[in-house]
Amino acid sequence: MTSIAKPQIPLLTLERNQLGLTIRDYSGSMSTLCAGCGHDSVTAAIQEALWGLAIPPHEVAKLSGIGCSSKTPQYFDSAAVGFNSVHGRMAAVASGAAAANRELVLVGVSGDGDSLSIGLGNLAHAIRRNVRMLYVIANNGVYGLTKGQFSASADIGSRSRKGEPNLLPPVDPMLLGLSLGATFLARGFSGDKAQLVPLLKAGLSHGGFALVDVISPCVQFNDHEGSTKSFRYVREHELQDIDADIIPVRGQIHSEQTPGAATEVELHDGSRVLFRAVPEGYDPRDRVRVGTYLVESARQGEIATGLLYLDETTPDMHQVSATTEERLWDLPFERLCPGSAELAKFQASLR
Amino acid sequence: MAELAPRRTLVPIPVTDVEDPSYFHKVVDCQWACPAHTDVPQYIRLIGQGRYGDAYLLNRKSNVFPGILGRTCDRPCEPACRRGRVDGDAVAICRLKRVASDLREDVSWGLPRAAEVKNGKRVACVGAGPASLTVANDLMPLGYEVTIFERQQQPGGLMRTNIPAFRLPAKVLDEEIAVILDMGVDIRYGTEISSMRELLQMGYDAVFVGSGAPRGKELELPGRHDEVGETHIHIGIDWLESIAFGHVTKVGRRVLIIGVGNTAMDCCRSSRRLGGEDIRVMARRPRQYFKASPWELEDAEEEGVRIVVNHAPRRFIVEDGRLVGMEFDQVEWDEGAVHSKTVGTVRIDCDDVILAIGQENAFPWIERDLPLEFTSPQLAAVDELTMQATLPGVFFGGDAAFGAKNIIWAVEHGHQAAISIHNHCQGIPVAERPAQAMRLTSRKMGLTQWSYHNDYNPHGRQEMSRVDLKRRFERLNLEVELGFGAEETAREVQRCLNCDIQTDFQAPLCIECDACIDVCPVRCLTFVRPDWADEDELRARLNAPAENRSQAIFVSEALPQTGRVMVKDENLCVHCGLCAERCPTAAWDMARFELGIPYAGRPAEVG
Lengths: 351, 607
Prior knowledge:
Chain A is α/β, with parallel strands linked by helices. Chain A has twelve helices and 14 strands.
């Protein structure tokens, strides 16, 4: 909480995007999270990504479940529609929203509890269906809202604030995604927006389910000595050797095209991801190699970050299901609900 | 950690030294711009709390004449005010000063008192204007015997003779001057000093010259001296003085004022009150090059005065020994108004002309064979720090020192001269100046509670109510501005951004969580790798490029986790304290900066 709302000071220096909007046009209400929460930086990064890509604020749907992270959609893009679902069910609601209106830009924000414990089943199937959305896991390894118990993403041996070690193995959303056929897997760190914002922009431009795991330290319950998700630990153990940049088709292009990129992948909307540097033999489109790299780096105690895996060839939910191109609310009632005579005819055809 | 490795050779980080009083002082733009360094944000807060007497005394400590200055100050603080950069309109600092003065309760307990025991040192002051009065104000409490020689029958100097009573009522002037004189100053009215040599022989331990810049500039054009009998061409400051002492009570219907400084504004508005109807202020250059303060121009225009630009005076037209008009060249200026060309000539009929084209110093009474050097025929060589002339023991201040400035500069000269006189009389080198002091005290009361009002108030600058135009000219000395009422005051005090409540950063505590950077409403914070080539590159690399070079950049020492540094652009910070509220480790704090200013015989103190 803060004592005052953010002053709206008329600033001439605020940059405008292609829609003529400033970053303030993508803001929400003041955060009520603890001071210094990593999630606030994730919020700021999402805001910057939406602004940078010049996505119309009202064309965004913000979705979340329950938890500290799930409060954050309140804190960005007030012009968007939003749905705060029951615990762990955000992915299911998102699938429904995507089915009803394929033009919405879906931004889901969830946490390690909401996604990897209670909502794991929902997450898994949204990945399998390749629902076109940006799915952010603000991952801090603890249940902050209930006073800091270990979550499903806590590393073995990571210690609680009282010094107790975690004994259970973690769910790594990146490895989980790989095994389920995810098409976009990235990991970032809330303390490094220079890397996180391009990852989110790439995820928003991706043609399927873009899963971005953001290590987002809990300053209250998991930022101490012995924690493996503290600011200091992440900074000391972060591997940033997968260096990717996005050249969006829409929005503003800040970086000049990087020459000599190792790998280039075109995204669904025509944007391109340039992998400037990857480890020897690494191919971000090769599931087996990526899996090996993730397991290897985890075993070394390192946290691999960057755009880890990208597949633009797998069809998304709409393509697989051959759904209509139109938004459901644009369809005339007769087409949306053809009536009992048509139903009887259809049933007869199955007899 | 690859991303965090420096890309280039590390340069030594120019870590900002916040222990140097001038760093945070400069952030308080108004206080920095004020020649006397009045603690503006603090007195505005005191006014907000209804502590008018305390606000008055705080003002008085540095500027000695809050009531006078609250009406007449040149307000160098207002163009400097951060609020002007934020929403275009500075806080009405000067008007609030007047509020403190108008509404003050009895403050006699806090006024200076003469020392009971004299120290045996005698100081002579020439002229009873703001500079000399400040010298007396500072020295009387130390036991000095101060004598002021004044050629008029009343004290105040230019404050009385050149500022019309409709802007500064005599009551305000008398009250504030009396505080000083009543300490037992030996003031000799009607005494004009005619020889510096004689004055020096009178055995004073120090001499202070605060006699102003008393000579109005002449405009030698054809016809200037062609009138027969009573003249209708007047020198502005002399004319204003004659009005002040009741020697002039009327003026012709059509009046031309030559010049567009603040004196010209006083002349045209006085003309309006003495019977002038068609009053024109004639300017050679376009409006943006005028010397007059914008608000004085507006006040004049409100009263029906016409401001005519691009007219260069050519000659006075005198027919039958009587002034009937003036001839002007109509000019056009190039970009920047450096060169002009004449495009026509025009005659403007008038009954009176008032020349207000500047003032000069004149010291006919200082013998040039004294070991007191002059840098020009009009100006003595005066040290800018000590105010001492080349003859030890002789000091200058106010307009007498460096030419016409304003009251607040005169006050500051007086303070500095008093320090020098004290040094001189105690056998300490005058160049040995007492140091300033500073103190930072946290304003934190709780997790999100501060002992200052940190919310940004979007109200616009409050308008001053004035006497209705129909009634305004009834009496020559009817004060035009009515002062702020309770509502205007309440709104205006909240427009102040509390720039003295500083963002105090402790680098060792920072965990680089980005919270402050995300929350800052003006994007003035950035983490930067310490590998910039020069300040220009650093300024360009910030989240919002720091383009205002006149405003400082704060650079922290290296941060513990990544070795980056915290950089803050001071330019637009609104001191809302959100960085400190969102900081999980209290690396940011909001702390009040107090500047301790030394005065004669009183070392700098804070608190």
